[in-house]
Amino acid sequence: MMSSERTYTLAPSFPAPSWDALHTLWAAFLGTLPEIQVDIVDGTFAPHTSWPFTEPEGVSALTRLRECAPTRIEIDAMCMHPEQHLDLFLSVGATRVVIHAGSTEEYHTCLTHRTEHGYRMGLGILNTTPSEFLHEWIPHFDYVQVMGIETIGAQGLPFDERTLGTVAQLRETYPELEIAVDGAVNASTIPRLIAAGANRFLPGS
Questions:
Q1: pLDDT one-digit tens code per residue, 19-38
Q2: CA 118 centroid distance within chain
Q3: Structure confidence at residue 197 (pLDDT)
Q4: Where are the alpha helices (DSSP H) in 49-147?
Q5: How far apart are CA 180 and CA 202, in angstroms?
Q6: For 92-198, where are the alpha helices, taking DSSP H only?
Q7: Mean pLDDT of 84-111
Q8: Phi first, then psi: what are they for 46, rounded to 5°?
Q9: Residue 159 and residue 39: Cα distance in Å, rounded?
Q10: Given strand 13-14, what is the order of strands in its sheet?
Q11: What end-to-end distance do the CA atoms of the chain give, in Å?
């Protein structure tokens, strides 16, 4: 598919330190962008922690996301064993969920849940994710999310230039694939990412 025929989407991405911070972000974009990505970082899969894992009740605090209706919600599950939380993600209205390479061994379980419940599931990868893993699993997911930084779960890090090559290779191998980029996505990098073949952009800081 030629780049001129692709659909491009933009959704703010935010590993919030608290519910108040996340709600403020949502309110700022209400009526402007129909979708946000909520990064949930458990401090184990990634070396940082974000809401809801900063709350005493932990991941169950996600139920507050129901207050963000009618905005569409994508959950970027930067946590170990995300398969344990898929029912919760759906209960708060998530229409898209990103499962990261290395966060689970239960990819088939996650994909089956996706199929049974009719939402979209993406595979989150790093520029260092082995190609053998990519070719085994990407065909089973609805889209791929390439991390544009070296260390996930934090904001404000510099753009990893290897991302351009990763995106270009994915586009060449999977011409119809939706390719998202999260991390160091901004006015300077988006044109370069479009040229490489990305078509979904998740700016954070």
A1: 999 999 899 989 898 999 99
A2: 18
A3: 98
A4: 86-91, 107-117, 131-137
A5: 7
A6: 107-117, 131-137, 162-173, 190-196
A7: 98
A8: -125, 155
A9: 18
A10: 9-10, 200-202, 178-182, 143-147, 120-125, 94-100, 72-78, 35-41, 13-14
A11: 31
